[in-house]
Amino acid sequence: MNNTFIDLHLHSYYSDDGEFSPSELMKRCHARGITIVAIADHNSIKAVEEAKKEANKYHIHYISAIEIDCTYRGINLHVLGYGIDGKDKAFHDLEENILHQERASSTKKLELTNRLGFDIKQEQLDELSNSGVYTGEMFAEVLLNDSRYEEHELLQPYRPGGNRSDNPYVNFYWDFYSQGKPCYTEIIYPTMEEVIKMIAGSGGVSVLAHPGNNLKGNFEILEEMIEAGIQGVEAFSSYHDRETAEYFLQKGRERKLLVTCGSDFHGKTKPSIQIGETGCSLNPLEIQEELVKRGLL
User: Fold this and answer.
1) Could you report the per-residue pLDDT of 12-58, keeping only the tens digit for each?
2) What is the mean pLDDT of residues 3-12?
3) What are the helix (H) ranges across the chain?
4) Of the candidates 34, 124, 142, 283, which lies 20 to 30 Å from 224 by C-alpha distance?
């Protein structure tokens, strides 16, 4: 049975790689029959108040949320915080700290990208960024739309028909700007333990986002994370195949975790992913019941 009315992982334009306003997302959720929603922007709670207000218009149950970058044993992770205080200063301070670092690292990203055989100008990126932050997805958008590089070998996998063309912008990010890749620039993120504490201090529940993607096959680490305080796992994600989703579903049930589902919808950076397409095999009422038990609905 496909999930038809819950999506707990959307991004608004308060994420550097998101396209739509919180209000527009609620309108789109309503059109697709989604009635339980969370916008989990990267290191930001700016969407919360607007989204809540707009959700009320459509009788949508809105859950305040955030997706925080953090580290555990040298691995970069994303932890979702649900049911948090949408006005908590701790999250505001976190956003300002990371934003400051990302602006500084953007110049380095430009240098590293051009070393791959390109000649991108800062002005091209400024047309896409309103914050001074240049994401891997922005570099992809610039390069794939620059006529000088139509035949560039490095870009062929991301063009129509290529093996990375389903979500070309975000795939380019993962291939060149994520941890361990040629254009990676380090940002000092809080530890996972610090993030769990921050979320708990705001009255929220901490959930490990798309673990099949972040844990890179080293799934047994989840046990340590549970001991460290992780309360839930996003078993159903656009990043997970059926086998991966089933693994984390069973692990979540064994350890009595909150099992969640999220599309990770962004808009143009992930064009193949639509709102509500979470790959969830559970009856959505089961997830709804768990959300109620955790005080999130």
Assistant:
1) 999 999 999 999 999 999 999 999 999 999 999 999 999 999 999 99
2) 91
3) 22-31, 48-57, 89-114, 122-126, 136-144, 168-176, 192-201, 211-214, 221-228, 242-254, 284-293
4) 283
How, if at all, do strands 75-82 and 205-208 pair? antiparallel
First-to-final CA distance of the chain:
22
Residues with Cβ < 8 Å from 108, sequence gap 6 or more? Answer: 185
Q: What is the 3-state secondary structure (H, E, C) of 10-21?
A: ECCCCCCCCCCC
Q: What are the phi and psi torsion angles at 25 (to 5°)?
A: -65, -40
User: 130 in a domain, yes or no?
Assistant: no
Q: Are 9 and 262 spatial neighbours (Cβ–Cβ below 8 Å)?
A: yes
Contact indicator for 90, 101 with CB cutoff of 8 Å = no
How sure is the predictor about 110, in pLDDT bands with cuts at 50, 70 and 90?
Answer: very high
* CB 58, CB 52: distance < 8 Å: no
How many structural domains comprise the chain? 1
Q: How crowded is residue 269: how many other Cβ atoms within 10 Å of its Cβ?
A: 26
Q: Which residue range is the domain that position 38 belongs to? A: 6-95+196-293
Per-residue pLDDT at 63? 98
Within a domain: 191: no
Q: Is residue 248 part of a domain?
A: yes
pTM of the model: 0.92
**Secondary structure tally for the chain: helices H, strands E:** 11, 8
- Paired tokens of 240: 């997970």
3-state secondary structure of 147: helix
Is residue 157, in this structure, part of any structural domain at all? no
Supply the CATH number for residue 242's domain: 3.20.20.140
Do you know the residue count of the chain? Answer: 297
